Every structure is written in C-alpha cells, then in structure tokens.
Amino acid sequence: MLAVQRYPWEQGVCAQAIYEIGDIRTMIAMAHDAVLRQKPDGRLAVINENIAVTDPAANGEVVWRAYEITGDTFYQKAALRMLDYLLKDAPGTEEGILYHNEISFQEEFTPCQIWADSAYMAPPFLAVMGYTEEAARQIEGYFSYLVDREKKLVNHIYDVGRKTFVREKLWATGNGWTLLGIGRVADLAKEQGKKDVFRRMTELGTKLLQEMLRYQLPDGRFHDILDDENSFIDGTAAMMMAAFIYRGCRHGWLDKQFLQKADLVAETMENYVDDYGIIHEVCGCPDFVSSGTSAESMAAYLMMHGWREG
C-alpha cells in the first residue's frame, strides 16, 4: 500500500488505515508529509492544484493524533488550519454542506457538486476536533442529496447548481466510503458522550448496511454499480463494508448477526492479493470506472483485518 502513488484522499485513507492497525511510527511519518504538502489555505497533502475541497481532510485525524502523541505544535497548527478551512472557507451549499471539489470534470455541470466520497473525507475529522454535531449534519446532508428514495442507497454525484445528478448510479465504493465515515463518527460520538449523534449515526449506518447487503454476491463482493449486474465485480466496497461491520460489532453498536457477511468478504479477498501485496479485481485507479487496483482497496483490506483481529 505504501508503494502506491497517492493523491490527498489516498494519503489520508492509507494513513488512517495504518493508524487503525496500530502502526503509530508509520502513521506519524505519513502525517508529517501530509503537513509538508499543506497549502496556505489549510488543505493537507496536496500534490497538484488546489481543486479538492473535502479530500485533504481525510488526513486530518492522523495529523491531529500525531500532535497528541508527540506534543509537536507542527502537527497541531496544521490540523487547526485544516479545520479552519472546512469551517470558514470551504465552498458548500446554502445550508453549509461541503462540496467535493472546486471544479467540475464535465463542462456541462457546475462545480457545486456533492459526492458520496465526502462522507468519509471530512466528517470524521470534524468529529475528532469536537465538531461532532457538524460531522453528523454533513453526513446527513450528503445523504439527503444523494439517496435513492426507493432503494435507500446513495448515488455517486449530485450537481446542486443544476439540480440534477452528474452520476446517478449506486456506486458500490461510494456506499462503502459512506459506511466508513458513518462508523468513525459513530465511534467518536460514543466516546464523547454525544448520545443523539451516536444514535443517528448508528441507525443510519445500520439501515445503509442492510440495503447494501441486498446486493451482496455469493462470494461476498458487489457489482461496481450495486444494481447493475452488467458492471464489473468489485472488492473494495465489500472490504469497506466488512471494516464497518467489524468495527460496529467490536464496539457493541452493531448486531453480531452481520459478522458472517464480513467473514465471507475477508475469506474471499485473500484470493485476490498477489505475491506483491497488490489487491486485484477492485474499482481501479486512476479513473475508478473499470476493474483494476487502488490504494483505497489496500487501505480497506488493512482496516478490515485490523478490526477483525483487534
């Protein structure tokens, strides 16, 4: 995983996976470079133009944890700058739900877009920094824009400016990102005694999990587009889902009946790890529209096993 070239969200999810399996030395080293590549406006781990709004915040927790562990204000100041950007400068809807990027990748749409990915990127960091209610509000906001009212799962991208979907597809990985974000915020709300947020997040996460499981294939994986049997089969979303299940069951807020669904994923995915540690038959980098390999698949694998094995 550490050998993969990384953009802000990839650096963030990989560092978070390293933190969650307890490799603190490596996590701090990754947080260090996320700070070295912080832009003046506060966005972390930026290696190209400042176009991503929420992706850089995926690095936020590990940078803050690095401060807590080392006491070095190098990390403290960087985390606070990232927080300040999200709370004050990041573009969003009239009600303050954060957009995913500053640009649109399609000329016919506006930059005012809500992406399912964002549920993982920014809300957990907001919760880490004590803005737990705001974290839940962001997740619920994303859900309200993206949810398929009939199937109760989230579509990928909605253009608020044009009031239409950019990608009205039940992208499996997008639902996986959403589950991972909900799980982290639920845990943080529980730690902080935020009972209402904890209840809302666990209820939302459980319902999303149940709907997602309707599309689980016999080997535990999913089609890349959950309700499209002609789309390729993806393992990333399954591992994200399994990590959510193991986390919830370990911390007592998810029914253990779901463990068998996660175990199936964990066992199946061993067949897709090659001799070099690269995981295959997942939603592939760099375009994420075909089967391939990706940093987030390897991060999800580590998270899955970290929460499974404790």
Task: Looking at this protein, list some descriptive labels.
52% helix; 3-stranded antiparallel beta sheet; 7 strands; single chain; 310 residues; 2 domains; mainly alpha; Glycosyltransferase
Quick rundown:
The chain is mainly alpha-helical.
Q: What is the CATH architecture descriptor of the largest domain?
A: Alpha/alpha barrel
Number of strands: 7
Average of pLDDT: 97
At the first level of CATH, the class of the largest domain is: Mainly Alpha
Total discrete domains: 2
Order of helices and strands: HHHHEHHHEEHHEEHHEEH
Specify the biggest β-sheet. Answer: 3 strands, antiparallel
Secondary structure class reads mainly alpha
**Distance between the amino and carboxyl termini:** 20 Å
- Strands ordered across the widest β-sheet: 1-2-3
Strand percentage: 5-15%
Total helices: the number is: 12
Radius of gyration equals 18 Å
> Outline, from the CA principal axes?
globular
Under CATH, the topology of the largest domain is which?
Glycosyltransferase
Poorly predicted spans: none
Helix content, binned percent = 40-55%
Provide an overview of this structure.
- The chain is mostly helical.
- It folds into two domains: 1-90, no CATH class; 91-309, Alpha/alpha barrel (Glycosyltransferase).
- The protein contains twelve helices and seven strands.
- Strands 1-2-3 form a three-stranded antiparallel sheet, with helices on one face. Strands 4-5 form a two-stranded antiparallel ribbon.
- The protein starts with 7 loop residues before the first helix and ends with a helix.
